[in-house]
Amino acid sequence: MNIILFGPPAAGKGTQSQFLMKKFGLVQLSTGNMLRQAIADGTELGKQASAIMERGDLVDDTTILGIVRHRMEQPDCVNGVIFDGFPRTKKQGEGLDAMLQDMGQSLDFAIQLAVPNDFLMARVKKRVAETPVAQRRADDTPETLQKRLGVYHAQTAPVLAYYADQGVLQIIDGTQEISAVSTALTHIISA
Ligand code: AMP
């Protein structure tokens, strides 16, 4: 079972991915986490991605599709994955379709966690205030969030439309309590 979890930064995709992993035995495939790991490991990919990520821009589609394919081919992905933070452009969505077809797999659900911008801004300000400086993500600031939200809406809206046009996009109110969002996800997936 392969699921895409859409949502702007700080919408709760990471938290809900953890829930889905435990509940359905899926693997979380977060391109953001993979890129942050590459930076921490000091790899060539990490060196290329770090400045782009700090600016809040998107890493190029070919690079992203390459790391996703590589991860999908690992044995632990055999039960399926939750795509978190991917696809972020229409080209990545088309690339994912081609990749899944090539691998004899399919996309089962595309689910959007919908959260308004002002709600996200308040959430990030609270998170920054509550997280020790040493543990904060470099791009988790109200200033960068503003930029990332702009990028998200400009570049991801066409991807949402891509899945909506195929009739596979389902939308959940992401302003709800964490447990209520988890319940809504379970209803969709178990239906
Ligand atoms: P995230 O943790 O998903 O918010 O991603 C953090 C940053 O990593 C983004 O702001 C982008 O710079 C980069 N990134 C993560 N996933 C992608 C993707 N699918 N396409 C392009 N850039 C990405």
Keywords:
191 residues; alpha/beta; 12% strand; binds adenosine monophosphate
Structure description:
The protein is α/β, with parallel strands linked by helices. Helix content is 58%, strand content 12%. It has eight helices and five strands, in the order E-H-E-H-H-H-E-H-E-H-H-E-H. It has a five-stranded parallel β-sheet, sandwiched between helices. Helix 5 (90-102) crosses helix 7 (142-165). It starts with a strand and ends with a helix. Adenosine monophosphate is lined by residues 9, 31-32, 35, 52-53, 56-59, 64, 85-86, 88, 92, 148. The site of adenosine monophosphate has 16 residues, from helix 2 and helix 3.
String of helices and strands: EHEHHHEHEHHEH
Mean pLDDT, to the nearest integer, reads 93
Small-molecule binders: adenosine monophosphate
Count of helices? 8
Radius of gyration over alpha carbons?
Answer: 16 Å
Question: Can you list the strand order of the major beta sheet?
Answer: 2-3-1-4-5
Low confidence ranges: none
The assigned structural class equals alpha/beta
The largest sheet is: 5 strands, parallel
Q: Rough shape?
A: globular
Fraction of residues in β-strands = 5-15%
Helix proportion: 55-70%
What is the terminal separation in angstroms? 13 Å
What's the number of extended β-strand segments? 5
